[in-house]
Amino acid sequence: MTELLVKNACVIDPIRGINGDIMDIAIRDGRIVESVSDRAEVIDAHRCLTLPGGIDSHTHVCGTKVNFGRYMSPEDMRAGRTQRRGKMHVTSGYYVPTTFGNSYRYSAMGYTTLLEGAMAPLEARHTHEEFTATPHQDMLANTLFDGNWAVMDAVREKNIKKAAAIVGWTLNAVKGYAIKLTNPGGTEAWGWGEDVTSIHEMVPHFDVTPAEIITTMIQANELLKLPHSVHLHCNNLGKPGNYQTTLDTFDLVPDVNPNRQTLYATHVQFHAYGGGTWRNICSKAEEITRSVNSKPQIVMDMGQIMFCRTMTMTADGPMEFNLHCLHHNKWSNHDVELETGSGIIPVTYSKKSAVNCIMWAIGLELALLTKSPWQCLLETDNPNGAPFVKYPEVIGLLMSKRYRDEECATLHADTEGRTSLCALEREMDWHDIAVMTRAGQAKALGIINQGKGHLGIGAEADIAIYPIRTDSVDPAREYRKVVEGFQKTRFTIKRGRVVSRDGEIIVDGANATFWVNAKVPEDLRMENDPEFIKRFEQFYTVRMSNYPVQDVYLPRGRCIETEAFT
Amino acid sequence: MIVSDVVCPFCGCLCDDLELEVEGDRVVRVQNGCSLAEATFMNDTRLPTPIRRTKTGWEDISYDEAIKETADILKEADRPLLYGWSSTHGEAQSVGVHIAELIGAVIDNTSTVCHGPSILAIQEVGHPGCTLGQVKNRADVIIYWGCNPIEAHPRHMSRYTTFATGFFVPEAQRERTVIVVDTRRNDTTNIADEFLQVEPGGDYAVLSALRAIVRGKESVIPKKVAGIAKEQLIRVAGICKNAKFGAIFFGLGLTMSRGKYKNVRNAIELTDELNRHTKFVISPMRGHGNVYGSNEVFTWMTGYPFAVDFARGIAFYNPGETTAVDILRRGECDAALIVASDPGANFPRLAAAHLAKIPTVIIDPHVNATTALSRIHIPCTAAGIDAAGTAYRMDGVPIRLKKVIERGYPDDAELLKKIYDRLNGGGWDHD
Amino acid sequence: MKCILNTGRTVPQGIAVEHKGSDTYRAVASACFLNPVDMMILGIENGARVGITSPTGHVVLSARSAEGVTRGEIFVTIGPYANHIISSETHGTGMPDFKSQSVDVEPTEEPIRSVGELMEEIGGLRYDRQ
Amino acid sequence: MRVILESKVRSKPNLPIEAEAIIPRNFLKGTDLVVFEGNKERTLSELFWIFVEGTAVSPENIEVVLKGDTSRIKRVGEYMDTGNIVIEGDIGMHCGNFMSGGTIEILGNADSWLGREMRGGTILCRGNAGHYCATGYRGEKKGMQGGKVEVFGNAGDFCAEYLAGGEVHIHGSTGDFPGVEMRGGQLTIEGDATRPCANMKEGSCVILGTVHDMIPTFEKIDKRVLPEWKITADVYKGDVANRGKGTLMIKNPGAV
Description:
Chain A is of the alpha/beta class. Chain A contains 18 helices and 24 strands. In chain A, helix 6 packs across helix 8. By secondary structure, chain B is of the alpha/beta class. Chains B and C meet through helix 1, helix 4, helix 6, helix 12 and helix 15 of B and strand 1, helix 1 and helix 5 of C.
């Protein structure tokens, strides 16, 4: 039995409605309890800001695509090198760090749970191998279904149950957590070098539209009773004028789940562009947030960009090629048979570029114009918009109008006319930030019941104690203190153990991987469907028996079972 | 006993549809596999026990003794080299990287003498590729450039390309055009619809010419480029541009001939150019069963796919400087640990000779040329035969190798963990 | 005769690759494929021995006629025989000239050595208990 | 001030030494510097006999002289910004990496990656230079960006790869692919070269000797008198395969 007592913590725990109370937190064997014995180890938080461990609900840190980003970037690897030290392994890389680099840096910032944004089912084993080597965060994997042939066949046949059964079988086979749709239909079209340009355009050879894929998958998701909603990267990412596609997509979404959103729309900054060309691109954040403010069934995340050199990586192959034709730097692409695609290119976001400045402003506008912080979560689509180590700066910008004004003064002159950021007075408070960086994520991902995102009795003792005194820091004026404070916790506690102190990792990690087993009725299971098996063996290049990820790849797997179809 | 859907660990195709008949600790029949697979499973003669070189011959030693001496050798070294890794599973590769980091070693894998140049090229221009099923189901134009799949990857054409039935190419042989580029005629060139016989060392010029033609600049091109007539180049460029889905596979003919990675880069840039007209992908024909896995494991752990130098505590990478052949050629390293490979046979003479001058330990199931250059040889399981583990196919698809028999050997990952423990003075703690 | 040495993988080499001490492997790895015209000029028949010399070393191989090999080129499967004469220079890339080593080819009466003998020539010691 | 470093005899003379600490500025505060020999940290005095003559108040007045067997010493002059380094014999790899000012003179030969990612200053190599002379790092978009590298002997393969600015002058010949991927700057080769300027985007290159294996995707546009060399050269634009706008001037085009 191990016990830990955190004393004098200034706790903000939005899920439990606690906002800045000074209290003690008792921990036994990794969970939060009423009280501990006097033998417990004691940490004095000295009234510092204490939050549930940070949760990133959309990041790219593990798997084929991320590793390819590393593989092709020795120039980045030398940008962030640290030596082996104590319990810490060597790390390399700044925008695509090694797995240990990701894990240590997230931990130093108080993050204890991560959702990998895109896992191709065929390559799931790779993602899980890297999860094991990202030891300080619990991991969940978004599983890609955007170009899944079997799913598209079911959509065409308007067979929702079958679509659900395919998803259920796949999630179970690859130990995935949620349904991810990346440019639905577009990744299949990219198999021919084409794309789909609206949600009502037919996918070549499959006679389905993105809209049909999205609505069917939303229904299948609820039929399977998955903890998370459909997680969508909308069509037409990064194209001027794409906001209309985004609005059309939002209009498809019913409000069907009382516990959470029905659709999670990711990195919406990249989907909120007006205009028709790169010359007249402008912000449509107002239109997007007007829609979201009237639709509680939608939660989005920012997709904030920051000015730096980074790497874009997404399953959206056609988008990456278009971007490559603009940048003329290196381009990688990796299409996955019968399932999805992916593309990777390095980019530099510069204040000299009007487009980049407008993108930067749109992300912030989305957050500031969304009334409820539970509906617009903070992330950069790491590393697409910026590496996650930039989160503290994003927090600073959201909390301080002065910081925003100072930055705006250094931007390209066109920014002001084509965005409304400068006019926005809103300054977020500590509670808003706590929602946008952990509580909102826990609710959106459906992991509150797993003891994530709050500090109630029975919760997993994932806690971040920041060197910030909320009673003495004025974030609007002293935003630099805010940024610094969120960069490095005093203590990051993971499942009751102090893993990071002042940015130094002090123990070996022992993370868990959450996955979902939706129990589909016997007669609907794909492993009993001869037609599914036949097509699998014919068109995949691995045998169906070699496809599922074996248990050995999840040394600390945590299965969430649902009673589907009931 | 019959075991089905077995994965062959020999080459980068990692065919996973083999059926094996097993009797006791022996495989007695292999179905669906090529002749290389058959030899891999059926002619599997092992070194029975660890051996150590004496002044005049060889003596048997215990595993404990062998492990202790290996750890002592590595501990003493000022510039140890850990080399090989491509014929074992990812689990062993990962322990190898941990050892290298712990002792400040250089760690390199066999891509250094096969597709290392392809990696250098990818680091300059990226890699438009795909999984092999994309090619199987869609490709109507297949190009084999500087590779000979019939000899090196015997089932590549029947499983993934020329002869494979695909969803959008139900009559594969009729519907696919096959182009082969090589310096000499061989069995692969004989099945080509177009054979471009390029002069040795002329690949780069041919690729540049094709790029220019695809861009509409054919007027610049001379009548003949590296032995190939301009008319044929124009014809081939036309076939590529008119393809619905084209796939280039390339081999050591590009990576080993003069210019090395620049040849590969040029092929990738041709692929890039063709994507402005249609869909085109390119893929290296990776050799050893899990050589791509060694690149993957090295990359997520160190940031670099091969040739990683931990001498200064951080990871440093610079092929040409930190690559195994160069470290040996310059006589830099003062100890070597070879795992699952045979540099004695595969490295140029001068590089191999240095292994005999320093204390070298090899961990490998089989006696090979490197055995003769070593001080100690420790036998172990062979991944995919008597050990399970992860391997990455040439296209990045991770596949679990199966354990089909038990022969009583220790897994190399376990041997390496014991060596790590001795060096670290503590328990293995990285799972 | 001046030639360019080309190397590559072959099925027989792959089959015997884990039996480097065997006669099969010796036969496979020490075969040197030449264009028939070049063989005529050298005045040798199939199976004759040829001495191959490069700035790095000298090795004896068994000549085999092959139509597919162009004149001025010789092909030897990857392995210790070819490597005995390939330079370890990598041009700063890590990769030796496995496909473009300049060599001199001439008929010889010298014997073809075993893999073990080649290793002993560079400081090794054969292990041939099986 | 002159700092003379004379290499001591080492028990393992082939072990590389990484000595980016050897730049003039660092000797302002004394000679108590750290270098790496293989995977071991060493003080400068473990590896060198150190002699200091005179004093200096600013680094530009410091000259560092290396004597003895220095062929395995890497990174001498890395990030050097001022002062002088003289190497009496051969020098190891990465001499003058990221250099931004000052002068390095090598009386012997330089190993590979001489002046990698250089920004300014001057490197004079009286002997031959190895491969990747005046180039960049793997995966990086730009190689050398400024300053001057002058080699009085020959240079190896991939000389001035990714050259983006500054001047590279080889008095002798180069190996394969000089000026490959050039983005800018000026490359001059007085001797012969094989496959020059392949895939170049911009910049200019003059070759006075014989060119072997000219890349087929260069467009001959002109003849031009080069008064400084007293020759008439063929002028090519390219690399056409790469939408390049570079200039390649050749006195003796060999067989294509």
